[in-house]
Amino acid sequence: MYRVKEVSTRLMRPTLPSINLDLLEQLVSNWNKEWEADASVKVFDEGLAQYMLVDELSHHKFYAAVILGKPALRCSLVEEEPEDRLDEEADNEFTLTNASKSSEHLEQLKEVLSKRGYRFAA
After folding, report:
1. C-alpha angle 8/16/14, rounded to 5°?
2. With contact defined as beta carbons under 8 Å apart, do 23 and 60 qualify?
3. CA distances from 83 to 53, 94, 116 (A)
4. pTM of the shown model
5. Which residues pair with 108 in a beta bridge?
């Protein structure tokens, strides 16, 4: 059984180095208001007022929420800490994948995440 908690998007921290732009555009364009409360986003509580995102879908729902200006999401707290591949393998630099067309929302996401110390591969 997962514990559930309302978590500010400002406190969520990505751990995966790639962003699938097709998936991101799909989630932004078809945002389901239920995702804000259904605890489908999985995070690990670091105990440092930061929550590590756990899986790919959780990451992309977080990115979509950031683009859409959602202040918080109801999340499931998991007990196992995810591997922070974004920090350990990619030095906090995102790689963009599956860009079948230019992403109209990418610049907005880049602006927010860049302020948090993340970079994007050229």
Report:
1. 15
2. yes
3. 10, 16, 19
4. 0.93
5. none
Q: Name the H helices within 1-122.
A: 21-29, 56-67, 85-88, 106-115
Give the bridge partners for 8, in sequence order: 72
Number of domains making up the chain: 1
The sign of the torsion formed by the CA atoms of 122, 59, 89, 97 equals negative
CATH code assigned at 100: 3.90.1530.10
Query: Which residue in the block uniquely carries the two structure tokens 């180095």?
Result: 17
Domain that holds residue 63: 3-120
Q: What is the secondary structure of 96-113 as a DSSP string?
A: EE--SS--TTHHHHHHHH
Backbone phi and psi for residue 61, each to the nearest 5 degrees, phi listed first:
-65, -40
pLDDT digits (tens), the chain, 122 positions: 569 999 999 999 999 999 999 999 999 999 999 999 999 999 999 888 899 999 999 999 999 999 999 999 999 999 999 999 999 999 999 999 987 666 678 889 999 999 999 999 87
Residue 49, token pair as written in the block:
């007022």
